[in-house]
Design brief:
The chain is an alpha/beta fold and 320 residues long. It has 17 helices and eight strands. Helix 15 packs antiparallel against helix 16.
């Protein structure tokens, strides 16, 4: 979810899903330690609970980045060893680290020593030819021995060469059963499943086998799917799901603050394109928001115009 689940996206998601744990995009530990950390890890207090997802393979740098994240107020620090992209592999982190479980365990131990908030790991069920239950359990056991008790497992192995990241999200087939068996073999661990969960019914089935469900691109393209999952997971006292117009109104103060800071409107509204997904007016909403939001000097009035286009109303009247 690099370049997807940034702070603007998370603010939108929090309006739709009041209780769901949100994750940042994967951020390289060294960039936080040496770069513009304020820009990289800034978040709005409304995002809580929110986890900082790190990429890296240097225990010292990861510990430093984890400490900075905890000091900034993140509720969890997550180490991503599941991303299969060439760019990530070339930097010696992501899914290729599953071939070096001792190093991952060392990284986790260093991060845990640096913070008091939970340290978790996101991984695949395997890599290349290493895709057996035995491999996955040995990988998890070594890290759990260093104090990590939560694993988010993408139920598809990573192919480290010959496939693009996009292909790695579809090939080879998902193996949800492997994640189920991992949980059954480790009842004391929190096991969260990821990959190919696109309906509420599918999520409910997963909840009978594992402790939680992580969704990514499906929630991004159809944010009301995320909203329905949030209410299903925490039915007691759940608030009503806001309609798109209410979501836009609740985003307005945040957008106005960001525009005043110099943020371009499109940086925020690009995450809102799926707000009318599956509803009448979805195409008009996307077209209007995309075209108007990209213009220099685009302001909050663009949202009124886009809502009007989606709902077939008098755009000029709404914009005024």
């Amino acid at each position: 979810m690099m370049d997807w689940s940034d702070r603007h996206c998370r603010h939108l998601f929090r309006i739709l899903a009041p209780r769901t744990l949100l994750y940042t995009e994967m951020i390289v530990a060294q960039a936080i330690v040496r770069g513009d950390r304020a820009r990289l890890i800034e978040f709005d207090p409304a995002e809580h609970p929110v986890a900082l997802q790190l990429g890296g393979s240097d225990p010292l740098a990861l510990a430093q980045a984890a400490r900075i994240g905890a000091q900034e107020g993140y509720d969890e620090i997550n180490l991503n060893v599941g991303c299969p992209s060439d760019r990530v592999q070339n930097a010696s982190f992501g899914a290729c680290l599953m071939a070096r479980p001792a190093l991952v365990a060392e990284c986790v131990a260093a991060m845990r020593a640096a913070v008091t908030v939970p340290v978790t790991v996101k991984c695949r069920i395997g890599i290349d030819n290493e895709d057996s239950d035995r491999f996955l359990e040995a990988f998890v056991d070594g890290i759990a021995a260093r104090g990590c008790d939560t694993f988010i497992v993408h139920a598809r192995k990573a192919i480290l060469s010959g496939l693009s990241p996009r292909q790695n999200r579809e090939i080879p087939p998902l193996r949800h059963d492997m994640v189920w068996r991992l949980k059954a073999a480790h009842p004391s661990l929190c096991v969260v499943i990821n990959g190919g969960i696109r309906t509420l019914e599918a999520a409910r089935e997963q909840w009978t086998h594992v402790d939680g469900v992580m969704v990514g691109r499906e929630a991004y393209h159809n944010p009301y799917f995320l909203a329905s999952l949030d209410r299903a997971a925490w039915p007691g006292g759940a608030t009503a799901i806001p309609d798109p117009h209410e979501v836009v109104e609740r985003m307005r103060p945040y957008i106005e603050r960001e525009l005043a800071r110099g943020t371009r409107l499109h940086s925020i509204t690009r995450h809102m394109l799926g707000l009318y997904a599956g509803r009448p007016g979805a195409r008009a909403w996307r077209r209007s928001l995309s075209e108007l939001g990209r213009r220099d000097g685009a302001d909050i009035g663009v949202l009124a115009r886009a809502c009007g286009a989606a709902e077939g109303l008098d755009i000029g009247r709404l914009a005024g």
